Amino acid sequence: MTAIRGVAPLGVAALLAACMQIAPPPREPWPPMDVGVAGPAQNLDAACVADYRPDVDYFPQKTRFAHSAQLQVEYGPHYKRVRFTPSVATGEVLEYLFVQCGTPTPAHGPHVPVVQVPVQRLVTGNSAMLGALDELGLVDRLYGAESTRSATVPAVRERIAQGLVHDMWGYGHASIESVIAVQADVYLSFYSAYPQGNMHPRLWELGVRAIPQADHHELHPLGRAEWLKLLALLTNREGRGDAQFSEIVTQYEHWRSIARQAATRPQVLAGFASSRDTVETFGGRNQRAQMIHDAGGEYVLGDDPRPSSLIYEPFEKVYAKGADASVWLGTLGGQADRETLVAANALHGWFSAVEEGRVYAWDHGYTGAWAYPYQDQGMTKPHVQLAEAIAVLHPELVPEKPPAQFLRQLP
Amino acid sequence: MNTTALSSGPAASPTATARGMRVSGWFITLAVALALLFVAELSLGSVAIPLGAILEMLTTGSTDQRVWQDIVMGFRLPRALNALCSGAALGVAGLLLQTLFRNPLADPFVLGIVHGARLGSAVLVTFAGVVGNAFLLRYGLMGDVGLAVASICGSAAVLGLLALLSRHVGTVTLLIIGLMLGYLAVGLISVLMHFIDETQARAFKAWDDASFAGATWQQLRILIPGIGIGLAACTLLVKPLNGLLLGERYAASMGMPVGRVKRGALLVTAWLSGLVSAFCGPVAFLGLVAAQIARALMRCADHRVLLPAAGLVGAVLGLAADLVLHLPWSRHVFHLNAVIGLVGAPTALYMLYRTRALHKVD
Question: pTM score, two decimals?
Answer without folding.
Answer: 0.80
